[in-house]
Design a protein that fits this description.
Helices cover 40% and strands 18% of the residues. The protein is α+β, with helices and mostly antiparallel strands and 246 residues long. The C terminus is likely disordered.
């Protein structure tokens, strides 16, 4: 999607029976105006397709995972994002930015297709929630995939993931929302004591159902060669086994 021509704007002028798709469906439904849906409009300029809120969400994630400034967005940066490389990159900033930009575009594109092709409304926070869910899923799946690696590769990959996502520096940010149940995913991975040949790591998970206040639960991951399990533990047990457990 980033380096090839996407199907928007003037592309549809040459497709019989679909010329109306050249215009932004969000602007048409909101203001009645026929605004050409160029890439600039779709990714960065539209006031109605939720792109602005979604990029703000991406910027907040970035600021919670690095000290490097958030770059000025432009169509050129988006088109060349797959090749972004920072000098003196000790915090995986280059990789993180490539991931964040590509996922943000995918979230905007999914909402755009829902509105344009399926003719379904996109609620104000829906696109940024799609983005949060995709990033949460990426972190979870990437971590779980390490259990199939040998010990050396697993350790390297897990350290890489902790570096890539700030080792819990945005634990209050990733929130999944479905059926009014909000699940906050905490990627702090606090190492605790070794018990029975297992290294113990704690993950804090916050659950809340609106309008109830959040309820904090604690989980323990037991990690040993070729075996990884996770089970809930009591608040007190968490404090005994893992420093800083909640």
């Amino acid at each position: 999607m980033l380096i090839s021509r996407i199907k928007c704007g003037p592309y549809w002028n040459n497709i019989p029976g679909h010329a109306e798709r050249a215009f932004c469906s969000f602007c048409k439904k909101t203001t009645g105006d026929d605004i050409m849906e160029t890439e600039q409009h779709l990714w960065l300029s539209c006031d109605h397709n939720r792109q602005r809120q979604t990029w703000e969400t991406t910027m907040n994630i970035w600021r919670k995972t690095t000290q490097r400034d958030w770059p000025a967005l432009s169509l050129g940066l988006i088109r060349g994002s797959a090749a972004i490389t920072f000098n003196d990159d000790r915090n995986s900033d280059s990789e993180r930015l490539r991931i964040l930009i590509s996922m943000t575009l995918w979230a905007i594109w999914k909402s755009r297709n829902k509105n344009t092709i399926n003719n379904q409304d996109v609620v104000p926070n829906e696109t940024k929630e799609i983005l949060k869910e995709m990033i949460s899923s990426l972190i979870r799946n990437s971590w779980l995939a390490t259990k199939f690696m040998d010990l050396t590769k697993r350790t390297i990959r897990q350290n890489k993931l902790r570096s890539l996502w700030g080792d819990g520096s945005f634990v209050d940010f990733i929130v999944l929302s479905k059926n009014n149940v909000h699940v906050a995913f905490f990627f702090s991975m606090v190492r605790g004591n070794e018990v029975g040949g297992h290294e113990l790591y704690s993950i804090q998970v916050g659950l809340s159902t609106l309008p109830s206040p959040p309820v904090e639960l604690s989980y323990i991951i037991r990690i040993r060669p070729n075996v990884s399990t996770m089970h809930p533990i009591s608040h007190a047990e968490s404090r005994r086994t893992c420093p800083g457990g909640h």
